[in-house]
Every structure is written in structure tokens, then in C-alpha cells.
Amino acid sequence: MNWQADWGLRFRMFVTMFLLFALYIVFAGVITAYVGGGLLLFGLMFGGFSLVQYYFSDTLTLRSMGAKTVSADEYPQLHASIERLSQQADLPKPKVAVVDSKVPNAFATGRNQKNAAVCVTTGLMNSLDQEELDGVLAHELAHVKNRDMMVMTIASFLSTIAFMMVRWGAFFGGGHGRGRGGGGGGIVVAILVSLIVWIISYLLIRALSRYREYAADRGAAAITGNPSALASALLKISGEMDKVPKDDLREEAEMNAFFIIPIKSGIVGRLFSTHPPTEKRVEQLRDLEREMQTF
């Protein structure tokens, strides 16, 4: 199975970014009309800070997870696997990092293919055999090849601006000058618009995020030629996740969008999950396995 450009993913990325861009053009216009420059200036300042975060995303993400960049001397087998899989995916070898955690998971980070990192937890390495681990690593490398981290970071940055304006809108508008919309009504309108923009952004990003997981699963199958190994890994990780203490899960839940299997947080959490159900992912991988066997 050869790697093929996922035009479905590219189309969804384009549509999502186009809709978000259009949404924020309207958003900026309403904020300027009703509030003046106060909230918009805050948004621009926050945006500048977020761009700095984006540029150093690999370092910041690894630090936030307590991950340690490891050498080939420390983890020779892990380095050898990532180097081999990177060559098969036609990618530069990313940085390799490890988190000392019982939670069996993995994630990729970085703003582009040349500045990427793949991180695994000790719990993951202790839970999977070599073929399953290769499947998970290939999944993360597929995210890197598809430039998923860059797109999701930019999309999330736009959504976060709207959320922060909702949260701090009253402070920046009320009591510190009246908006152009007349009295405190302008502030209310701005906050409501910010809320609507944030909700729409949230739903668009979640839809794109779920599709990118399917695309990364297909990419992993293309890299390894072994879809069943990744399917087995997903089932094993999902089962092991239920055994992890809730305190350990709570500490890492904020990184859900980056993980190969999300940390579940009740019915609402699953409804707005960044990932599709594990069962559907496994079903797709098994379909790929059957397709490969027919050739």
C-alpha cells in the first residue's frame, strides 16, 4: 500500500480554514463597529502571543506534558523505529521524546515537517509489542506528513481569541469606555457575537480533528503496510486507559487533541471529542487490511 495524497483531508482543511477566515472577518467588523478598538486590540495582542507559541510549539508542548527529549543511547529501539518509519514516510527524522506516565498514549507536535517531535509515554511502550508500537508511531508521523499540527494550531488559535474575548469582554469594554453601539449594549452585542463565533469555530475544528484521525490511520497503514497492528494497538490502548487512575488522566486531559486515543470525560466529552470512536477506526483499518489482501 503506497502513500497517497489525501485529497479529502486537504479539501476539509481548506473548507475549514476558509470558513474560519470568513467568520473572523465578520467577527472583526462587528467588534470594531460596536466596541471600537478595545477588544480588537486585545485580540491582536493575544494573537501575537499565540504566534510566538506557534513558532515554539514543539518545545512548549513537550514541556507542558513533562516530556523529555531522549537520545539514541537512552532509547535505541525507539529511535531506530522512528528513523526507519520516517524513511518509509519520506520525512526528516523528528525529535524523539518520552513522558514518564502510566497513561498509554502518544502524540506529535511541531509547526512543520522539519520542526516536529514524536512523543510516547512509558505506559505505551510497556503496553504494546513492537508491531503495535510501529503502528502508533506511523500514525503520529502521518500527522506530521499531513501537516495536521500546523492547521489545528492555527484553527485553535482563532477559536481561542473568540473565547478570550467572551471571557474578558466585559472587563475591556464595561467600565473602561463605551462602545460605538451606545452604552453597555455594544459590549453585550460584542460578547454575544464572540460566543457565537467561538461555538461555530469549536464545531468546525472538532469535525476536522475527527477526520484527520481517520486520515492518519490510513497514512499509518500506508507507511507500515500493517493496518491490523494499529487496530490492535488502538484496542489495547483504549482498554488500558480504563485502568489508569482518574487523577493521572485529569492531569493530561488538556492534551486530548494531540493524543492518539483521547481521554474520555463523560457523555458530553465523547459527543464533542476531537477523535472518532475507536470502534469505527478499528473497523476502517480492518477494511484496509482486507483490501490489501486482495492485491
Written description of the protein model:
- The chain has 295 residues and is an alpha+beta fold.
- The chain folds into two domains: 7-58 and 155-203, no CATH class; 66-147 and 208-293, Zincin-like (2-Layer Sandwich).
- It contains twelve helices and four strands; from the N terminus they run αααβαβββαααααααα.
- Helix 9 packs antiparallel against helix 12 (278-293).
- The longest helix has 40 residues, at 185-224.
- It is globular and about 60 Å long.
- The relative contact order is 0.15.
- The model is unreliable at 172-183 and 265-271 (pLDDT under 50).
Task: Using brief descriptors, characterize the structure shown.
single chain; 295 residues; alpha+beta; Zincin-like; 12 helices; 68% helix; globular
Measured on Cα atoms, how large is the radius of gyration? 21 Å
CATH topology title of the largest domain: Zincin-like
Please tell me the overall pLDDT: 77
CATH class of the largest domain, please? Alpha Beta
SSE arrangement, N to C: HHHEHEEEHHHHHHHH
Give the low-pLDDT segments: 172-183, 265-271
Which strand-content bin applies to the residues? 5-15%
Helix content: 55-70%
| Number of helical segments with 4 or more residues | 12
For the biggest sheet, the summary is: 4 strands, mixed
Query: In the CATH hierarchy, what is the architecture of the largest domain at level 2?
Result: 2-Layer Sandwich
Strand line-up of the largest beta sheet? 1-2-4-3
Shape: globular
Number of E strands: 4
Between the first and last Cα atoms, what is the distance in angstroms? 9 Å
CATH superfamily of the largest domain: Metalloproteases ("zincins"), catalytic domain
